[in-house]
Q: What sequence folds into this?
């Protein structure tokens, strides 16, 4: 079912006390409540906006100035970047990070399982008229929301030619003070430094942030951990089907220019994005699928 009014979604998929649907500025938002966690998902872009295990500060951060309006990218949560990452390779007029994140996804299933609530969304060529679809492709996103969070982005090539895509789950994590966090798991990985005009380097030790950071780590397949001494927690980021990890914080000046990060918002978020970008873009053979999976959990 596509994004009709929330009451129709509620009638079809609502689960009293677990899953409900609401209108927020013309965007249908799914509200998930569970003993172990709460979450909100915008139907637009099938974009998880917030996830907070019970008793914790939100692990997935949503800007206090996020704009919810049809066709407007939502600042925070987990934007789905597909079928390209960053600016389009040849058409600067096309939206940054592709068109999936502002498209009207279809909700296929809701499963209120005991330990988590599972949802399945789909995006098909007919859903985004005029978008430069990479031939006959279909996208699905499965989420499992509980004390942990799992997401799987599945690209299906329904065409007769190989399909090359760039993609990422562009996840905004909530932190106590970004100047105090350490991001482990990227030691020794080559990276492209977008702040330094694309200069390439090799990561030495943990990633720390004391200014604008915008790096694409390549051949990065290990778990990452965000060590947050202020909130006294470690967020583990496991992944499969992803060779790139992007680390981004806009810092003060760029955040101020963006206008939807909020007062000092940049101090309370860091993006650690799992995907396949730049040298790591993937080619999906005709008739086959590519699966990008992430698992987020909180330790300590
Ligand atoms: O993932 C980092 C990045 O590519 C940055 O360069 C910055 O553009 C960020 O994504 C946010 O992009 P957006 O289009 O959501 O403003």
A:
């Amino acid at each position: 079912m596509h994004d009709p009014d929330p009451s129709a979604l509620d009638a079809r998929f609502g689960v009293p006390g677990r899953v409900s649907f609401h209108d927020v500025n013309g965007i249908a938002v799914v509200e998930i409540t569970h003993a172990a966690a709460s979450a909100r998902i915008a139907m637009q872009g099938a974009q998880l906006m917030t996830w907070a295990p019970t008793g914790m500060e939100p692990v997935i951060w949503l800007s206090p100035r996020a704009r919810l309006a049809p066709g407007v990218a939502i600042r925070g949560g987990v934007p789905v970047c597909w079928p390209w990452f960053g600016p389009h390779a040849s058409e600067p007029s096309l939206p940054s990070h592709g068109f999936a994140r502002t498209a009207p996804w279809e909700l296929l299933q809701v499963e209120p399982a005991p330990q988590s609530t599972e949802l399945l969304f789909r995006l098909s060529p007919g859903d985004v008229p005029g978008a430069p679809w990479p031939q006959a492709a279909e996208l699905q996103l499965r989420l499992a929301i509980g004390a942990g969070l799992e997401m799987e982005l599945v690209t299906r090539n329904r065409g007769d030619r190989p399909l090359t895509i760039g993609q990422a789950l562009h996840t905004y994590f909530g932190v106590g003070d970004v100047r105090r966090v350490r991001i482990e798991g990227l030691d020794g990985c080559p990276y492209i430094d977008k702040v330094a005009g694309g200069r390439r380097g090799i990561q030495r030790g943990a990633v720390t942030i004391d200014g604008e950071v915008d790096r694409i780590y390549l051949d990065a397949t290990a778990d990452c951990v965000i060590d947050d001494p202020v909130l006294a927690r470690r967020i583990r980021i496991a992944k499969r089907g992803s060779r790139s990890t992007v680390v981004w914080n806009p810092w003060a000046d760029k955040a101020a220019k963006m206008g939807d990060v909020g007062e000092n918002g940049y101090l309370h978020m860091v993006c650690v994005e799992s995907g396949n970008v730049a040298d790591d873009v993937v080619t999906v053979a005709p008739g086959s699928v590519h699966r990008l999976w992430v698992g987020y959990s909180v330790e300590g």
